[in-house]
Amino acid sequence: MELLSGFAVLLGGPGSGKGTQCLKIAETFGFKHIGAGDLLRKEMYSGSENGAMIQKLMTEGGIAPSEVTVKLIKKAIESAESCKFLIDGFPRSEENRMVYERIIGAEPNFVLFFDCPEEVMVKRVLSRNEGRVDDNEHTVKERLKVYKAITLPVVNHYAKKGKLYKVDGTGTQEEIFERVQPVFTSLRESQKGPMLSADPYTPSHYPAYDLLHLILSECSIPELEFDYIRIHAM
Ligand SMILES: Nc1ncnc2c1ncn2[C@@H]1O[C@H](COP(=O)(O)OP(=O)(O)O)[C@@H](O)[C@H]1O
Ligand SMILES: O=c1ccn([C@@H]2O[C@H](COP(=O)(O)OP(=O)(O)O)[C@@H](O)[C@H]2O)c(=O)[nH]1
């Protein structure tokens, strides 16, 4: 099976606001939101053979085997009607990224990174109050270690590729969305790449602009000369 698709990725530490902002972006700009952690939690509670393993590693603050997560993401993509995806909280390791690229056969067109001080993230996680196995002081410390050692290299990888747009993740949800929204709006409305403010991670012109513009516009692409992103069967 082959699907025509395109996607953006949201990365950031635990509690940096990925899920919250993803919902707003998805609703405003018509993306299908795929939360990697949400998929794993659903799998954990489904009684599947992987349930106990997922619960253990989430409680310990670790990262699920790449094949397990990628399979769940692939299933979510295939069952969605949309062709515009916002993947939240994945890839979390270089290995995640490589397995995703091997199995799905695509790279994200654009990566948003929420930059947030540790103490802010910890405070948010500890007041999330959703009954999660990992929202406690011990696990959040472990998650932050994993984030710095294993996830930040992925962020750096996308920065080097000129795909990363860093957003200040502090302030209210509305303030953060005000920072995020113009990026998506200008990409949707402009025919030419937006010139963004200087930032260590932010290219002044998006190399991935054309493809992202394609994602953000309707999915009727055939007359345009873009590389199609194909999702290959596993
Ligand atoms: N800007 C914000 N200010 C205060 N609390 C926030 C903000 N953004 C999100 N939250 C809250 O912090 C917690 C973590 O946010 P969430 O979006 O789940 O982060 P992540 O997906 O990165 O872990 C949630 O309870 C959410 O309601
Ligand atoms: O690609 C992923 C995404 C999540 N997780 C696990 O799920 C937990 C919660 O992730 P989620 O994205 O839901 O939480 P957040 O970081 O947004 O607080 C992580 O600590 C990991 O244990 C994982 O193993 N792989």
TrEMBL record:
GO molecular function: AMP kinase activity; ATP binding
Alphabetical keyword list: ATP-binding, Cytoplasm, Kinase, Nucleotide-binding, Nucleus, Pyrimidine biosynthesis, Transferase
InterPro entries named among the record's database cross-references: Adenylat/UMP-CMP_kin, Adenylat_kinase_CS, P-loop_NTPase, UMP_CMP_kinase
EC number: 2.7.4.3
Gene3D superfamilies listed in its UniProt record: P-loop containing nucleotide triphosphate hydrolases
GO terms under biological process: 'de novo' pyrimidine nucleobase biosynthetic process; pyrimidine nucleotide biosynthetic process
Reaction equation(s) it catalyzes: UMP + ATP = UDP + ADP
Broadest EC class assigned to this enzyme: transferase
Source taxon at top rank: Eukaryota
Record-linked HAMAP family: Adenylate_kinase_Adk
Family to which this protein belongs: Belongs to the adenylate kinase family.
Protein name stated in the entry: adenylate kinase
Species the sequence originates in: Anisodus tanguticus
